[in-house]
User: Which sequence fits this backbone?
């Protein structure tokens, strides 16, 4: 392990990381999991990745820089800007770029107002039925180029998406919109699931008892950008009941300082 380059440490996340998550109680309410929770990290895979990287740095006599690591495992301000503009539901039109006076509306038709958005506390993306991470990377890269190539997506944007989504990152409530934002923290999820693991209706009844103003439970992937931050790609899904949910990949472009959706593809529906 010590001889592995640091930029390849993520390869240990699946095997060694999974064992750490099980044996050290990172998927539950262990003291170590609580320690990470207090620092804004809620996904067990993100915790184990930080532990593995710290151990690698120890083996190689390098500074661990744990706080810096944790900061790197959280969504960035640039990604939060995309999430915020995403909720304005502003579709792309060529005329937008031609109009010098254009400014995307703060409250476009269909924007979310006056409700609560409940988010998964960690990012995630559709994993298809890939048996391993390398297969997922290959299949997802090909899929995104195929779906959005005609809309102008660049390979570098897809590559950035793939690299960022090798592991979950901690989500933030700092999304700009006319709605409250809450995280479905692991302790709350366990509370909602207690005794209702096989009863989806009971789970959602408890969900809305806990979050009566919620419009849905949503999760986002991390956002892939091109080098100049002119285009972006992300995955988002939502569910509002046991048989009500969808997942989409979205391709966005930056117009007059705002992110607008140029193309979307629905990958699943229930």
Assistant:
């Amino acid at each position: 392990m010590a001889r592995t380059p640091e930029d390849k440490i993520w390869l240990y996340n699946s095997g060694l990381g999974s064992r750490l998550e099980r044996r050290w109680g990172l998927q539950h309410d262990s003291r170590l999991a609580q320690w990470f929770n207090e620092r804004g990290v809620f996904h067990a895979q993100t915790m184990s990745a930080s532990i593995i990287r710290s151990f690698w740095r120890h083996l190689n006599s390098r500074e661990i820089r744990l706080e810096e690591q944790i900061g790197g495992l959280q969504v960035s301000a640039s990604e939060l800007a995309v999430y915020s503009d995403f909720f304005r539901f502003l579709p792309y039109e060529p005329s937008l770029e031609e109009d010098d006076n254009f400014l995307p509306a703060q409250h476009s038709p269909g924007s979310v107002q006056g409700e609560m958005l409940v988010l998964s506390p960690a990012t995630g993306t559709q994993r298809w039925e890939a048996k391993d991470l390398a297969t997922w990377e290959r299949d997802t890269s090909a899929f995104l180029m195929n779906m959005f190539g005609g809309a102008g997506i660049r390979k570098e944007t897809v590559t950035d998406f793939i690299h960022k989504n090798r592991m979950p990152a901690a989500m933030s409530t700092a999304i700009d919109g006319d709605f409250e934002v809450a995280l479905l923290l692991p302790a709350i999820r366990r509370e909602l699931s207690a005794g209702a693991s096989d009863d989806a209706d009971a789970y959602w009844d408890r969900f809305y008892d806990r979050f009566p103003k919620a419009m849905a439970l949503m999760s986002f992937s991390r956002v892939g950008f091109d080098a100049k931050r002119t285009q972006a790609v992300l995955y988002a899904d939502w569910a509002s009941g046991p048989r009500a949910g969808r997942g989409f990949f979205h391709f966005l472009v930056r117009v007059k300082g705002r992110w607008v959706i140029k193309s979307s593809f629905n990958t699943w529906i229930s």
Q: What stands out?
A: Residues 6-72 form one domain. The beta strands are 113-119, 178-183, 214-220, 224-225, 231-241, 244-255, 258-269. The longest strand covers residues 244-255. The chain has two domains: 6-72, 77-269.
